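User: Assemble these into one structure.

Assistant: Restating your components, then the assembled model:
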Amino acid sequence: MVSWLNSFPYLTPYEKPFYFILIALFFIPSIIYSLKGKRLTGYQAFLTLFFLWISFAGPNKTQGLALIGYLIWQVVVSKLYFNYRQQANQSGWFYLSVLLSIVPMFLIKLLPIFTQQAPLVNHGQPLFYFLGYSYLTFKSVQVIMETRDGQIKELKIKDYVNFLVFFPTISAGPIDRFRRFTTNYYQHPDHDTYVKLLGKGINYIFLGILYKFIIGYLLGSLLLPVIQNEALNGSMLFLGSLGYMYVYSFYLFFDFAGYSLFAVGVSYLLGYETPMNFNKPFIAQNIKDFWNRWHMSLSFWFRDYVYMRLMFTLIKKKVFKSRIVASNIGYFALFLIMGVWHGLTWYYIAYGLFHATAICVNDAWLRYKKKHKGQLPSNHWTKALAIFITFNTVCFSLLIFSGFFDLVIKQFFTI
Amino acid sequence: MTTETMVLNILEDITGAENLAAELNTDLFDEGILDSLASVQLLVELENQCGVAVPISEFDRSEWGTPQQIIDQVTQLQN
């Protein structure tokens, strides 16, 4: 027993082929039941505990404890706010609850800066850190906002925790919606729907393997280091950087889209229709279109819970005379928050500001087009040009995001 | 003024689109007529002119995507 425990396979989600073998084996009873159109609730709860144990116990025990602490904190905050909201609806308590809900994320991001070289408790990670903390924060904040809107009419602790710790998406999304997720939990898809989900789910998992483990690996682990070396140490700084930009962009897409396909595919096997995260982002015709196709669950989260809410307040209270000014300020706020969320590093913030600028220019162009309707050419060539410009703008933004310029600066401008 | 004309007037004012009465089942988001900003303006105007407060998390694009859907939602909320 002890030796078996010692050889227990601790893995982060989707890290190794063995994780998939475990999924294949342990999912069988659940799949058989789901084919009858029913959810094997108790067994799925066991699966959740089992797969969380694999990722958050053993060597990652401190993360597991941080996760438990996080859940207790969020349950208390959201329950208190929910109970309050049934009686009253003052803005102050709403903002306070949102703030309290974000506190753990702030601590995880800020503590390392203030404690600089102090011993990091969590295996080199900040105190309170656990894998996926920021994605769980998006879910927690969402529940408070929808509670305020009166959209969440019942908040059971069991449903809320279930939603947060749903293991297929715990490490990096996609960010689901509480009401959608809970509907799936209580209404298992019928036989015919589940058969389709099962087929799609398996298909997505294999496509994910192709994306992440084959194409992503070739681009990111084999090709990228070579190009980076060529750009920084060779004599081809410009061409090398250009190559790095394209290879990194495709690597990032295949790696993250591959992961997202796993998360969505595995959710389908359990009878949950987790939303997709990518929809052919590189054929977007403008920056707005790009954000409707790239890391969709995140950009829709920012759209619905940051941008639209901020705009609603700004427009309703007539803070700015011009709606265009208001809208542009909204974009800068949104992308600045998104940049900071990625990390408190200069190139993430620069990435955010770059996208804010790009989307404001994009909006100005769309307004110009609307004004001169019928006067501008619109055909296959202009469409192709639009895709080309968007693609290159996006790739350049991802080059900023990659931290490549940080390397360049360190390579050429330090002693 | 009926709810239908009121909603259509608001939509035309905000988006600059013309004669939406003839396109009640057009998907406004797919056609690029509505976007996030325009939907916020729509919600503000619905509150000001029709007296219906629609929370942003109620505004689901698949249920508020065509002029007809918007008219139906507003009618439902008014009752």
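The two ends of chain A are 57 Å apart (CA to CA).
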